[in-house]
Design a protein that fits this description.
By secondary structure, the protein is α+β, with helices and mostly antiparallel strands. It folds into two domains: 241 residues, no CATH class; 90 residues, no CATH class. Helices cover 55% and strands 17% of the residues. It is built from nine helices and six strands. The chain has a six-stranded antiparallel beta sheet with strand order 1-2-3-4-5-6, with no helix packed on it. A hairpin with a 6-residue loop joins strand 5 and strand 6. The chain is elongated and about 100 Å long. The model has no long low-confidence stretch (mean pLDDT 80).
Length: 354
């Protein structure tokens, strides 16, 4: 049974991740194409963003994996054969609880520690990318200006190489002196001794002089190094999901408590959804393995929406942190108990004593 549930769970997880991450990957590529950050960090950003998607996907994948796996056993009458061999609902529950506990522990680590770390790292990576002036950051067809406004670089198109530009124009204004540079091509060069980064222009002209006078001179060069001024790394405002969980626990702000309870809710929801899938998967063999899948998906949607409503109310200070999002999990636990007692006729304390 563990093998059946595990294989189905992995299949559903890969499918949902493919759906979720495809949109994320397209968005990151579009932002890189617009020049928001260099193309060299695309894969790193994609991997870091995948961690946040894992936290959302794993509880749903576990629920669908348990429902589909047990639904197949009911459809093929294997569950009836297991029941005839004294393998009852308690055995099924123990098997599901084992894998649910393991997945919930994984989700807890991702939500409480790895997720905020990945979000902080991706934000820091974007901040550093905004500060770096690399050939990837010079978008062909656009004017690229530094923070001071004294240096501007324009490239008509990209070359065959990954770090080559064609039809380069540069403008510099230093202490009242104007310098114009044109070149057929350019590439980046880093001085190993000083660590300074240069844009090496090839086969071009340098025109320099003082505006308002006729004292200009033109120089033809084979190669010319243009110093690229590094930008200062300015830390952007951090999103709340990048704050460490320990910091949120020490805060008394409603929005911080809502974020912390949301992180704790993800492993709880994974465990409760897995237990809820067991009674929902019990179907008549003639009904097929997808008989109650729609009902299960609707319950998952309602569960997640209630969590979102409770999170918003807690963040706005409309409800007490002691109530917070816990009442939603309590309702889910009560529903699990009711379904178990109705469908599997579980004996209560009096029946067990008798």
């Amino acid at each position: 049974m563990l093998k059946e549930i595990g294989e189905t769970f992995l299949g559903v997880t890969l499918l949902l991740l493919l759906i979720f991450l495809s949109g994320t990957f397209v968005r990151i590529l579009a932002e890189a194409a617009e020049g928001d950050y260099p193309a060299g960090i695309v894969l790193s950003l994609f991997a870091l963003k995948a961690v946040g998607n894992m936290v959302l996907v794993l509880p749903i994948s576990l629920f669908l994996g348990v429902m589909l796996a047990l639904g197949r056993l009911y459809k093929d009458s294997e569950m009836a054969a297991m029941t005839a061999c004294a393998v009852g609902p308690d055995h099924v529950l123990r098997s599901v609880a084992k894998i649910a506990t393991l997945i919930s522990a994984l989700v807890a680590v991702l939500a409480l520690y790895v997720g905020p770390w990945a979000e902080e790292l991706s934000t820091r990576l974007l901040d550093e990318a905004q500060a770096r002036v690399e050939i990837e950051g010079i978008v062909p067809g656009r004017f690229n200006q530094d923070e001071s406004g004294s240096q501007l670089v324009y490239a008509a198109s990209a070359g065959k190489g990954a770090r080559e530009l064609l039809g380069v124009f540069a403008h510099q204004m230093v202490e009242g002196e104007l310098t114009l540079l044109t070149a057929k091509s350019a590439h980046t060069y880093v001085d190993k001794q000083t660590g300074h980064r240069y844009l090496m222009l090839r086969d071009g002209y340098r025109i320099e002089g003082k505006p308002g006078t006729s004292a200009y001179r033109t120089i033809h060069f084979a190669e010319h190094g243009l110093l690229l001024q590094p930008r200062e790394v300015v830390a952007s405002q951090r999103r709340r999901n990048a704050i460490p969980s320990a910091t949120l626990a020490r805060s008394d702000v409603g929005a911080d408590l809502a974020e912390l309870q949301w992180r704790i809710s993800t492993p709880l929801s994974a465990l409760l959804l897995a237990l809820l899938a067991v009674p929902l998967s019990k179907t008549n063999p003639r009904a097929g393995r997808f008989g109650r899948l729609f009902v299960g998906i609707m319950l998952v949607v309602i569960y997640n929406n209630l969590l979102s409503v409770a999170r918003g109310a807690l963040g706005k200070g409309e409800i007490s942190p002691w109530i917070g999002m816990w009442w939603v999990h309590l309702l889910a636990a009560v529903l699990v108990i009711i379904l178990y007692r109705q469908q599997f006729r579980m004996r209560g304390p009096r029946g067990a004593a008798a």
